[in-house]
């Protein structure tokens, strides 16, 4: 089962920096992430989601490839690729992988204009090493699915406190 963590930051740049830092930890096999999204509250009140992967684009590419292969079987690869790409794009638009977009928009309403929230869906992590690397980055924990002990440790690490 995955854990959800939502951390608010003063601005989009800081949230993106922390997301990059966490993604760097995946290269060291210290954390395994299912999804990492930065949500920014714009001046007009709308929430912009900066997702790592665009599901519609990925599905369109996959659909185009499969459509071309199927089109080869029926001697019309261009038509197959076009139909496959369109079907993939529609399927991708209807698919919400990772953290639910509506949930992220609703939760990000809690941050101020120009501020950002980092949403992480964590499959597994080496808690002590990840928290050491995040020590002092700042941010405010808005929500987690951690137990109280781990949530308190995360809050302390973000604040730069040593426990």
Please explain how this structure is put together.
This protein has 163 residues and is an alpha+beta fold. It folds into two domains: 3-53 and 99-159, hypothetical protein tt1634 (3-Layer(aba) Sandwich); 55-94, no CATH class. The chain has six helices and five strands; from the N terminus they run βαββαααβαβα. A five-stranded antiparallel β-sheet has the order 3-2-4-1-5, with helices on both faces. A hairpin with a 5-residue loop joins strand 2 and strand 3 (47-50). Helix 2 packs antiparallel against helix 3 and helix 5 (127-134) runs parallel beside helix 6 (148-159). The longest helix is centred in the middle third of the chain and has 19 residues, at 55-73. The protein is globular. The two termini are 27 Å apart. 27% of the residues are buried. The mean pLDDT is 83.
What are the key terms here?
163 residues; alpha+beta; hypothetical protein tt1634; 2 domains; five-stranded antiparallel beta sheet; 23% strand
What order do the helices and strands come in, and which of them pair?
Layout (H helix, E strand, L loop, with lengths): L2 E7 L2 H16 L3 E11 L5 E4 L4 H19 L3 H18 L6 H8 L7 E10 L1 H8 L5 E5 L3 H12 L4
Antiparallel strand pairs: 1-4, 1-5, 2-3, 2-4
Helix pairs in contact: 2-3, 5-6
Percent of residues in β-strands? 15-25%
Instruction: Tell me the distance between the termini.
Output: 27 Å
Would you list the SSEs in sequence order as H and E? EHEEHHHEHEH
CATH architecture term of the largest domain? 3-Layer(aba) Sandwich
